[in-house]
Design brief:
One of its GO terms (molecular function) is oxidoreductase activity. This protein is α+β, with helices and mostly antiparallel strands. It contains 8 helices and 6 strands, in the order ααβαααβββαβαβα. It starts with 16 loop residues before the first helix and ends with a helix. The structure holds 3-iodo-tyrosine.
């Protein structure tokens, strides 16, 4: 590849205006059916589906296209058990005081606590790692840019891809999260960013009423 090598944009699709309108409205409806759930079934999910969703996340834009992410897709019961044990231990500290009164008050409508059986039940846990720096092909250290922004976008696309495939998800940020580095055998230059739980919802899965209240357009957007 030459330094300024470009190729024509030959896969852009322009839709007729009415189709653009209906596609945007249809996708809104699709995404309005995405809910974080905390009751998962143990029904297996084909690895290929997860691979496709990870490849979708990998198409995310990133600073200088350095793609500063790693996804550790966990299906092994032994590893899931380790994640659950350590996450629950940290969460107990969080719910027993470390969170502080205000935070615990704000979480009340979600009904969460330190018990996380889904970390063992759900077929897939995806531990997302951010890379502050990476490596060139020859093994030299390479600086990454806008790491949080890039990984955040990739996670958004991952959740969207999983939902689009017909799976339920939960974004989980055990605090602290650094135990995931050891559990997933990740190198020094990576920081655990988020844990995504993916699978089928349990038959009895519920959504907190609080989580369904999304802000109206006028309070999230302005037009100038
Ligand atoms: N990580 C904890 C607490 C928690 C924090 C926020 I902010 C949430 O939106 C939900 C939960 C837990 O998973 O229980």
């Amino acid at each position: 590849m030459q330094p300024h090598d470009h190729s024509p944009l030959d896969d852009f699709i322009e839709y007729p205006e009415n189709e653009m309108m209906s596609r945007s409205a249809d996708f809104l409806q699709t995404m309005q059916r995405r809910h974080s759930i905390r009751q998962f079934s143990d029904r297996p999910v084909d690895k290929k589906v997860i691979e496709n969703c990870l490849l979708t996340a990998g198409t995310a834009p990133s600073g200088a296209n350095h793609q500063p992410w790693h996804f550790a897709a966990i299906n092994s019961s032994t590893v899931k058990q380790k994640v659950r044990e350590q996450a629950e231990a940290h969460e107990r500290g969080f719910y027993e005081g470390r969170a502080g009164e205000q935070w615990l008050q704000d979480l009340k409508p979600l009904g969460t606590d330190s018990s996380k059986p889904y970390l063992e039940l759900a077929p897939w846990l995806i531990a997302v790692f951010s890379q502050k720096s990476g490596e060139t092909e020859s093994g030299d250290k390479r600086q990454n840019y806008y790491v949080h922004e890039s990984v955040g976008i990739a996670v958004g696309m991952l959740i969207t891809a999983l939902h689009n495939a017909g799976l339920a998800t939960l974004t989980h940020t055990p605090k602290p999260m650094n135990f995931l580095t050891q559990v997933c055998n990740r190198p020094e230059n990576e920081r655990a960013y988020m844990l995504i739980i993916a699978g089928y919802p349990a038959d009895e899965a519920t959504i907190p009423a609080h989580a369904k209240q999304k802000k109206p357009l006028e309070s999230i957007a302005s037009f100038l």
